[in-house]
Amino acid sequence: MNRQGILTVVSGFSGAGKGTLxxxxxxxxxxGLSISATTRTPRTGEEDGREYFFLTxxxxxxxIEQGELIEWAExxxxxxxxxxxxxxxxxxxxxxxxxEIEVQGALHVRELFPDALLLFITPPSAExxxxxxxxxxxxxxxxxxxxxxxxxxxxxxMQQYDYIVVNDELDACVEQLNEIIINEHSRTLRNxxxxxxxSNELKAFKKGDL
Length: 210
Ligand code: 5GP
Fold this sequence. Notes:
- By secondary structure, the chain is of the alpha/beta class.
- It is about 45% helix and about 20% strand.
- The protein has helices at about 20-30, 55-65, 85-90, 105-110, 125-135, 140-155, 170-185, 190-205, and strands at about 5-10, 30-35, 35-40, 50-55, 70-75, 80-85, 95-100, 115-120, 165.
- The structure holds guanosine-5'-monophosphate.
């Protein structure tokens, strides 16, 4: 069957464990993860071209002007955006692509790609979210508060996602994400050309006037 790649958008509160989850998902399954561009400074252990393309504001703004980004958003004082080329190439090759982006960008992607699958990752509770952010130890208390306050705003958009995935246990969550995407391939709407082909083939077996 001619398989069309699905564009999956994964969002979730900062500290929900999206990064760890994406890493574990990609180690086990064959998805194309888009690498975003950002103007924020790298955290310890992050590498340019692996977690993000770390750019100056000037470089980022020139990418916006040149139309090289599918979407972009400002998040807690920095730009984040999805480079167009990788996503378009992978989808054209029939590969499933994942974007890990915040809610404004996600809703923008839905406008541009109405077939996109939107998944929202959340920890079991707000208390757990705060603990994870504090224990991660990568941000100052000020930044953590900013991120928690942004999470409150983001909660309003959860309704617009196709699935809410609670990230309680990593392995179980990886399996759940993979199953959702696999099942998405079976949706009737995504199989119109197969339906047409099957119907044409069956014509040959129809009795009577053809
Ligand atoms: P962080 O600084 O924690 O790596 O990311 C902050 C937020 O930016 C996260 O919610 C992440 O999903 C989002 N983000 C990362 N890349 C992109 C992107 O290309 N576009 C948008 N709109 N958001 C992004």
